[in-house]
Design a protein that fits this description.
Length: 738
């Protein structure tokens, strides 16, 4: 027995020695766990080696492509950004505009190139050790590789990556932890998902540093996790991140902003959707008017186009019904696009957005402030938030006064549906806006003869002013409409908006009559509608209107009004060939101007008297009279100079002094172009066409006549002049070589 115990003790001693020698203080269980960990690490190391060495190992978790149309310009911009040193790139735009589809298309193209590159060589994308972001891999490719340049080449359009990771916050809240897990699983480091967040972030960043990866974060605007913001902003080289967002919140990112599809692209998408759904929408595309309405209502937004076609297919709606739904912001599409954005808006931002539909066109900050009564810091913050959320689009002007803000058609429909519930708010805002534009137009000289230098400021608001005038006269705000009409009357006449001038000045005059506002009525009859009628409408009607205005000015004792009325009445009588009556009016007016030492009106009356002399055949007298006022016109009344030069060119043409007529006429034409006096441009072009014809320059004559006809036809007035020009052009065509 003692021998057995001694043997056991000896054996235990030997085993203890072996345990200490080979295992130290570790237990067998601890040794087993260590070996298992070593096996996993070896496995991961082996996987790394395979990923880096295998020619086809481009890892990704990209979703499937959807139908994609057009966007060639935007694709180039995103590819250029990916090839640049920028590591954070955003695609931003309004909801439903196609940001996700564009991102996926671009990333899929990069994937194809990456796979092709890895199959062409032992592809090892740039790492921190040997490359910086965006560097070329062309030196790693065989000399005859098709990817060595050109479209799709590594040094061409597309940037290759070792892996592509797609994450989306579309249907759920996306956190830093979610993104880190997705990266770990896509890169085949699933064990990292079990680590604590801080360690996981460190390890994932390390993997992104080892190989060039492209991380995509879709629907970034819904993310609230600050940790994810921080992670993306500290993304290690050589990896990059592509973000899609409805907001412009990543200020340091390289941004590509997208808008609606071009018309041709929208047509292609309609055809694709129609084919997919078994619909025949060829008539929609072929009908230019209906397609224009459809395109305008959807704003070229792919989601809206697909939704509209789906309504036709699934619910059997007519095109008219679908367009009404879009204009009325009816349908789940509007909830999808705008619900979250509306909830995020501050009160000032909501007030601004609500009133933006009252602008027919884009709006300046000053006009928005006047209409909304949102001021200073609140206005800046509100506009900034609306632009950031893509509810407003801002122009690229650096100067605040020139920057314009506009609505996407879908945003307009949404805001209009909200505003329709607040009619008193809309009414008061429109009246305030009319008062604002009245002040702006007066300040720019829109109601004064001679001030033209700032007319571009009024013309920038042309569509807004016309829409507002229409609203004023149709919605019981006639007083605001009258004052705004007066403020833009001279501007409309000078810039050639003769049809609009006739329409609104007639309405304003009728309301001034109804409201018993004689001074406003006389002003509109003499400077506005009467002038328009005698020059391009009903001559007799225009004369009567000017005479009525003259009587009112006489009753009011308005001396300047009397002088201007006499000048215009004399012109009306001349055009009716009542030369004696015209002379009487003009001489009376001249006498009054001299008593008042009114050099401007003296020059005007001299011009009218010279034109009257020309009408009576006294061409040399007319020539002398017009030449006598050239110097004062050049020095003090430049706005009238192109018209005086046109008169003088016409007189020289009738005197058969063609060279002088051409020289004078061309000077007048250039001045009229500078001032954008469209009616004068057409009139001088008409004269020059006659002169060139007389000189035998038939092609030049035809070109001048064509330019003149374009204006006179578009004005919807001047019927007699249009007939004369058409006949003249037909004669010229006979003289032109075939």
């Amino acid at each position: 027995m003692m021998e057995l115990l001694a043997l056991a003790a000896a054996l235990a001693g030997i085993l203890s020695f072996v345990y200490l020698l080979f295992l130290g203080q570790r237990s067998l269980i601890e040794l087993w766990r260590e070996r298992q960990a070593n096996k996993r690490n070896a496995s991961n190391a082996q996987a790394d080696a395979v990923i880096l060495a295998s020619p086809s190992a481009v890892l990704h978790n990209l979703p499937h492509r959807s139908d994609f149309v057009g966007r060639e310009k935007e694709k180039r911009q995103v590819h250029e950004a990916l090839r640049s040193r920028s590591y954070l790139i955003t695609i931003d735009g309004i909801g439903g505009i196609g940001k996700t589809c564009l991102a996926l298309e671009v990333v899929r193209e990069c994937l194809v190139v990456s796979q092709a590159a890895s199959n062409s060589t032992a592809f090892n994308p740039p790492s921190k050790m040997d490359s910086s972001r965006g560097s070329s891999l062309e030196e790693k490719l065989p000399p005859n590789s098709p990817l060595a340049g050109g479209h799709g080449g590594v040094n061409g359009a597309f940037q290759p990556f070792a892996a592509f990771i797609w994450t989306s916050a579309k249907d759920h809240e996306l956190t830093l932890n979610d993104v880190l897990d997705t990266i770990a699983f896509t890169l085949d480091y699933s064990h990292l998902a079990q680590l604590p967040l801080d360690e996981k972030r460190h390890q994932v960043a390390k993997r992104l540093q080892e190989k060039s990866c492209l991380l995509v974060v879709d629907n970034f605007e819904t993310i609230t996790d600050q940790g994810l913001y921080d992670f993306l902003q500290a993304l290690p080289e050589p990896s990059k991140c592509l973000v899609t967002s409805r907001t412009q919140s990543l200020k340091q990112a390289r941004a590509i902003s997208i808008r609606g599809l071009a018309k041709e692209e929208a047509q292609q998408l309609i055809q694709n959707e129609a084919s997919r759904l078994g619909l025949n929408l060829t008539p929609l595309i072929a009908d230019e008017r209906n397609f224009a309405r459809f395109y305008e209502a959807t704003g070229g937004a792919p989601l809206a186009i697909r939704w509209a076609i789906g309504q036709i297919k699934q619910r059997g709606q007519t095109l008219e019904g679908v367009l009404n739904s879009l204009h009325g912001a009816q349908g789940d599409i509007f909830e999808f696009i705008f619900q979250r954005a509306w909830a995020l808006l501050t009160e000032p931002a909501r007030n601004v957005l609500l009133l933006m539909p009252i602008f027919a066109y884009s709006a300046s900050k000053a006009a928005i402030e006047a209409a909304s009564e949102v001021h200073k810091w609140d206005l800046d913050e509100g506009l900034g938030q609306l632009v950031e959320l893509w509810l407003l689009e801002a122009s690229d002007h650096l100067e605040e006064a020139k920057r314009r803000y506009s609505l996407h058609p879908l945003t307009r429909a949404f805001a209009q549906s909200k505003l329709a519930q607040l009619p008193e708010l809309e009414r008061s805002a429109r009246v305030r806006l009319a008062e604002f534009f009245t002040g702006l137009a007066k300040e720019a000289g829109g109601d004064q003869w001679g001030a033209w230098e700032r007319y571009d400021e009024i013309e920038e608001e042309e569509e807004n002013v016309f829409a507002l005038l229409e609203w004023c006269f149709e919605n019981g705000a006639a007083q605001a409409g009258i004052q705004l009409t007066k403020a833009v009357t001279i501007f409309l006449n000078i810039r050639g908006y003769v049809y609009e001038a006739k329409t609104f000045e007639h309405k304003a005059a009728e309301f001034a009559r109804q409201l018993n506002q004689p001074k406003d009525l006389a002003w509109l009859l003499v400077y506005g509608i009467g002038w328009i009628e005698i020059h391009g409408g009903d001559l007799e009607k225009g004369e009567n209107q000017i005479r009525e205005g003259l009587k009112i000015f006489e009753a009011l004792g308005d001396q300047q009004g009397i002088r201007d009325a006499l000048c215009n009445w004399g012109e009306a009588l001349r055009l009716q060939r009542n030369y004696e009556g015209a002379l009487s009016c003009l001489l009376r007016g001249m006498s009054m101007a001299r008593v008042a030492n009114d050099d401007l009106h003296i020059a005007y009356f001299k011009r009218r008297l010279a034109v009257l002399a020309a009408s009576q055949g006294n061409l040399l007298e007319a020539k002398e009279g017009l030449e006598s006022i050239l110097s004062i016109m050049r020095e003090r009344y430049l706005l009238s100079l192109p018209d005086v030069l046109a008169n003088l060119a016409h007189v020289n043409f009738r005197l058969k002094r063609y060279e002088a007529a051409l020289e004078i006429g061309k000077e007048g034409l250039e001045l009229a172009k500078k001032m954008k006096k469209r009616q004068t441009i057409a009139w001088v072009s008409h004269i020059l066409s006659r002169v060139e014809n007389a000189c035998g320059n038939y092609q030049s004559a035809f070109n001048y006549a064509k330019r003149a006809l374009e204006f006179f036809e578009s004005s919807k007035l001047f019927a007699k002049t249009v007939e004369e020009l058409k006949a003249h052009m037909q004669e010229l065509q006979k003289k032109l070589p075939n």
